[in-house]
Amino acid sequence: MRIFLRLWRLLAPYRGFIFLATILGALTVGSNIGLLAVSALLISRAALHPPILDLMTLIVGVRFFGISRAVFRYLERYFTHDVTFRILSQIRVWFYRKLEPLAPAHLMDYGSGELLSRIVGDVDTLKFFYLRVLAPPLVAFMVLLGVFLFLAWFHLQAALVVLFFFLLAAVGIPLGIRSLSRGIGRRMVEVKGALNVLLVDSIRGMTEITAFGQGWRQQVKIEGLSRELIGLQGRVAGFTGLSGALVMLTMNLALWCVLVLTIPLVAGGKLDGIYLAMLALGAMGSFEAVLPLPLVYQHMEESMEAARRLFEITDTKPVVQDRAGHWLIPHRYDLEVKGLRFRYRENDSWVLDGLDFVLPQGGRLAIVGPSGAGKSTFVHLLLRFWEYEEGSITLGNHEIRAYSPETLRQLMGVVTQQTHIFNATIGENLLLAKPGASPEELVDAIRKAQLYDFIQSLPHGYDTYVGEEGLKLSGGQRQRLAIARVLLKNAPILILDEATVGLDPVTEKEVMGTIYGLMEGRTTLVITHRLTGLEVMDQILFLEGGKVVEQGTHETLLAQKGLYYKMWELQHQVLVEKT
Ligand code: ADP
Description:
With about 575 residues, this protein is α/β, with parallel strands linked by helices. It has two domains: about 1-315, Up-down Bundle (ABC transporter transmembrane region fold); about 335-575, P-loop containing nucleotide triphosphate hydrolases (Rossmann fold, 3-Layer(aba) Sandwich). The protein is about 60% helix and about 10% strand. It has 20 helices and ten strands. Helix 4 crosses helix 11 and helix 17 (about 475-490) packs parallel to helix 18. The model has no long low-confidence stretch (mean pLDDT about 85). Adenosine-5'-diphosphate binds near residues 108, 371, 373, 374 and 375. It is a multi-pass membrane protein. Pfam families: ABC_membrane (PF00664), ABC_tran (PF00005).
């Protein structure tokens, strides 16, 4: 019920539309009843051969209801679909807005397939919330009220009989179907979700799956889930058929009872015979409003499960809370870290354990150390993806918490090992960094990133599609694209997080050359476990287990013959062997 109310609140801006579409739905069924009833009356009257003029009003009535039925049906469909798509886009935007601040800290718990399934599948399921859960009972209620009053005016008992059968079809049958189909809606949402996750995972890992000859295993899993989904859909179809048949049965029983009750009245002269068919057919017509009701519970279950899965994510509190109020704008970019301690979860051991350093504006600092030392974690804290607990990080003499996360990220140009390249054109990927960049700025950036000749050599130039994750580009070209983005963004602080890892030594050297150009005039922080090209750094921190164990320039650290020296020598040997 709580989920239902929350969903209803989410639809608040569209309540007017919902009301209008529901009224139109009721008017459509009402016109249908009117058409049946007036036609029956016309035929009964005409059978008595009255002068044609006596029939004129009824003929006009038949025409009116015939046309109004079509017009109302059209308007109802129009508004219903309009409101459904508005609701869907509202839910999608709302969900995305909630999702964004959760990245990346909380979204790690969900795979990309799982998220996709929620954004696409669950949101899509919610389109039925209005269409098949909210609207049918409201329409049925309005129709029942109208038909009951109409019948009661002629014969109260007949009206009560119709009321009984109407409620049986509207409430009794759906409850029966619900108890038979309990859990199917929920299971269907789960299976659809699991299938999505599996499919996305399989497509992403296609190369590995094929290489290890595990294709059949994935196929068996997918087949299993598909079969279960088909089975569930088959059962739903079975219940749909059963409920349809039961509603028809109830409708015919109602018709029969009305006739049984009213025929003696006609025989007794208490009711004019020409109304007989009108009452019976009018009662029958009202059951059109009942037809969609038996499936309301099942769609309700599906919608509630989909909504629960969405709320589960949106209820998660972002790690870094956006506090309302006055944000500062930094004017200087000196970075100072004091006694910084951080761990991902309470009771875990510290990932950063008392980090201290000063990086003056325009300076170059490298944090090096073995894998797992906590280097990337520091970058995450700097970008405000996580909240630190102890110590401080100040930028331009203010704690970084004093700046809005957006402002902070705007100041930082980041090149990582896994730069995400979108499945779009080279131009679109570049403009991501600065959507309004002029052609001159673009050319300047790609020249500095040494991509100009490459782009010129492509038949489609900037309009070349780079494929998913930039697969049509080489590793070096991908990193250059990332560098060009940072150049376009023109951020005063540069963060290079293992920017050349994964590149072969020759490309690495070339990309490093480009990166040196990028460092000019920017406060630079380099994170790496590969000790190459660090001669140009003003200061190097050697991190191990979240603590700085050595500190100095490349020369002084080598001279110390400590851990840095050992690591450098090891890598140097490997490099010499490799080349
Ligand atoms: P580095 O960049 O030096 O290789 P990281 O900063 O990535 O090291 O990781 C430091 C430690 O934090 C590792 O032990 C790693 O397992 C842990 N860690 C990293 N990310 C997370 C996370 N999201 N949740 C929990 N632990 C994490």
